[in-house]
Design brief:
The chain is α/β, with parallel strands linked by helices. It is built from six helices and eight strands. The longest helix has 18 residues.
């Protein structure tokens, strides 16, 4: 089982995060970024799954202990809106990448919904990063663009999504292609948040397994 730890942000201040460790202490690392609900138990379980797959996984607590109930979208939106995405990425998320890389291996970044957007931002702005995977999240172009991505990138998106629309995904993929980036984009016949097993109204076991297997294969390729 994992545990809550403190680690250093890049500005020297301490940050909280949930760490699940692989059997090999020098295993590659994956930083896992929460949805707009906060550091829910489901995100912790994702860290456990990464550890079982052979990765050290660390999920920064970007809300500093606040967890929003799944039914309260208004509170989740308010919490997300109060987050400085670029600062959080450069300080807490980059610090988490540095923490995992201090163990001597490569490190990747992934996230879901809000966290998926952060994964894209990190792929542009975190110099220590080796690969990134976004699940149904894209940031505003004013914060990060596809052409700015510096590492191999994989994206998973739902065809039934009013948040990250198929049109937005198409535009993002075209920009990746035009810029000659190393990338994989996958689309699923499902709804936004189809990976979240706690949300039965949108969860898709078939899509979740396929996306997870693709993610693990991708990280094993680029973090080896």
């Amino acid at each position: 089982m994992g545990k809550m730890i403190t680690y250093k942000r890049t500005d020297g201040h301490e940050a909280l995060g949930y760490l699940a460790e692989a059997a090999n202490p020098r295993a590659p690392g994956v930083v896992v970024i929460q949805e707009w609900w906060g550091l829910q138990g489901q995100i912790k379980s994702v860290c456990e799954q990464f550890a079982a797959a052979g990765f050290n996984a660390l999920a920064p607590d970007l809300y500093n202990g606040r967890v929003v109930p799944y039914h309260d979208s208004a509170a989740a939106n308010a919490a997300m809106s109060s987050l400085d995405f670029k600062d959080a990425t450069q300080q807490a998320v980059r610090g988490a990448v540095q923490y995992l890389k201090s163990k001597g291996a490569k490190a990747g970044l992934t996230g879901f919904c809000m966290g998926g957007a952060v994964a894209v931002i990190g792929a542009v702005h975190i110099p220590e990063l080796d690969a990134a995977v976004s699940f149904y999240g894209l940031p505003p172009a004013t914060v990060a663009t596809a052409k700015g991505i510096r590492v191999p990138f994989q994206g998973h998106f739902a065809n039934q999504d009013d948040w990250v629309t198929p049109a937005a995904v198409d535009g993002f993929e075209q920009e990746l292609k035009s810029a000659g980036k190393t990338y994989e984009i996958y689309r699923y016949d499902g709804q936004h948040a189809f990976m979240n097993s706690d949300r039965k109204e949108v969860y898709s076991a078939v899509n979740a397994k396929l996306a997870w297997d693709r993610c693990i294969t991708f990280f094993k390729k680029y973090l080896a």
